[in-house]
Design a protein that fits this description.
Layout: E1 5-7, H1 9-22, E2 25-29, E3 39-43, E4 53-59, E5 62-67, H2 68-74, E6 77-85, E7 99-107, H3 110-119
Length: about 130
């Protein structure tokens, strides 16, 4: 099965560091406004996932969600969560670490898009 979301080794290392401090984690791909368009990291359950949130998959064991409207824009791409030096949004757990999560992407190949289409839409809400 094609993954809708992946993490780089740098992101996996930062996730491990954050998990050691905060316990289980989750991500929500922000759609803009005050957070910018960034993957936001929270302690698991701290961000209320709604029925319009789409489950993309897991990175380093952490569930990753995106709002339905944003999913429509990104549905043709694989999201790749990376970690780079710098200060990100103030709401995400990595902000004090001098690192920030960053979303990179690549367009699915025709074969990958066909496989995802055949699998049907991804689940929504927190019933994952």
């Amino acid at each position: 099965m094609v993954d809708r979301v992946l993490a780089t080794p740098a992101a996996e290392a930062l996730i491990g560091k954050l998990r050691a401090v905060h316990g289980d984690l989750m991500f929500h791909q922000s759609g803009g406004c005050c957070d910018g368009s960034a993957p936001m990291c929270y302690p698991l359950g701290e961000f209320k996932v709604g029925q319009q949130d789409v489950f993309l998959g897991r990175i380093a064991g952490c569930p990753v969600f995106i709002g339905a409207a944003q999913f429509e824009y990104w549905s043709h791409t694989q999201l790749i969560i990376d970690a780079v030096p710098g200060r990100g949004a103030g709401f995400s757990l990595e902000a004090p670490e001098g690192m920030r999560f960053l979303t990179r992407s690549r367009v699915f190949t025709d074969d990958e898009a066909e496989e995802l289409s055949a699998a049907g839409p991804p689940p929504r809400g927190d019933a994952v």
